[in-house]
Structure formats: structure tokens, C-alpha cells
Fold this protein.
Amino acid sequence: MRSQSIAGWCALVTGASSGIGAATARALAQEGCNLVLVARRRERLEALRAEILASVSSPSPSCSSRSFPDLRIHTAVLDVRDAEAVSGLLDSLPAEFREVDILVNNAGLALGVDGVSDLSVEDVETMVATNCLALARLTRLCTPGMLARDRGHVVTMGSVAGSHHYGGGAAYCATKAFALAFTNSARSDLVDSQVRVTLISPGAVKTEFGGVRFKGDEAAADKVYEGIDALTAEDCADAVVFSVTRPANCQVGDITLWATRQATPQVYGRRK
């Protein structure tokens, strides 16, 4: 299938300092896309910015990267749970970054594996604020400009947990079910335009996500992936790039990514 060039477009990626967000930023830059990188950790954002600019301005002869010496990247240190900061984000950007063509709603997290009778309400509030409210606020922020220009793409990083629910994940599954429903409704709301809407739903991806969920217990996080070849952040980034580079008449609604030895969020064919 032929692809659409996004060189010179501007993409805003949340949760860009690590994992899927960082991999997505790298992948979009390889397509010539200018970037607004949003996350809480300034040092990581600046390191990623420098890495990407170096890779696209003078790519290694041994790799297939293309050269985009004029590519621009802006970093914005922001907690997506901060409603006031999110509402003022576009106005705070340099003028050349305010017209966002691609929004990648990637920031998200899971906290804990307790059953509903032992849930930390504080953890639930954090997941709802990050996985649901930030998604709604950022989409509300960026889509009016997309509609005015009749061009744009909203990509949300969901999860298989949004449609395959399991014990020990009630709140997280609920937030990802919100992402699924919100994305589908948004597609209907934007149907009279050229603005496209995509949900990427990965299964087992090995990133910092597991360590966050288990609150620093890396051994417990690693055990989830024992005996399987988990998805990588780059696998998810590939799905984002595929979606945003389809020709203008083609809208990718949903992509579900499972690890090969995974059937549901809790069913794995583990190697002995």
C-alpha cells in the first residue's frame, strides 16, 4: 500500500521520556516529523532530543535512516495530570509548534495488582487522572486546530486490558476501557473531516511500565514476562507510524498487538 508522507508535520507525544513514548518519538522523527516531547523528566527529554537530532542530521552510513537536517524538536516538561498546565500547553509552545498535526496520547500507567476489596483509592485516582482525564483534555486541546486545518491524526495508546478484563486490574482495565470508548466516540465526532482517529492496544510490552505497576519490585515485574518474548516499545512505535502514514483515504481504527505466546492479558504459553 502506498504511504502518506508526514515530513514537516508536527507531532505531540506525551509520556515521551521513556518506553513506548520515546520509541514513537524516534520513529516519527525518522519520517521527518517535527516533535513536541512532553513528560515530567527534563533530563531524559533533553537527552532524547539530542539523540534524535543527531540521528536525523547525520545518520550512520550503516543504517537506513534518512537525513532531515531541518527537523525541529521542542521539549515540554509537564505532568499530564495538571489540568491547568495541559490547558495552557499549546499557548506555551513556540509558534512553529502550535499547529499539532499528530497527537500521540501515550502517557499512562498501571499501579498495583490488588483486588477491589484492597484497592488504594489514591492509586485509582492517579490512573484515572493520567489514563482518562489527560486523554480527554489533550484531545480537546488539539482537535479544534486539526478541524480548522482539516488535517490531523489522534493516536491513543490503549491496551488489550480495555477489552479483556481480569482480576487484580479492575481500575486499570476500566481506564483502558475508557480509552477504547473515547476513541470510538471521537471518530464519530470527527467523521465530517479529514481528522483520523486510531487506538493502538498492546499486550505484554516489556518497558518501565512493569516496574511502575509493581512499585519498584523489578523481580515481580520481570516474572510477568518469564518464558515469552514480550513486545517491545519499538513494536508499538511501528504501529503508530503505520497508522499515521496511511494514504489520506485510509483510516486505521484499531490495532491490537499480542506477544506471540500470549492469548489474553493473563494467558501465556511460557517456555519451560
Q: What stands out?
A: Strands lie at 10-14, 34-39, 73-77, 102-105, 152-157, 195-202, 254-257, 262-264, 267-268.
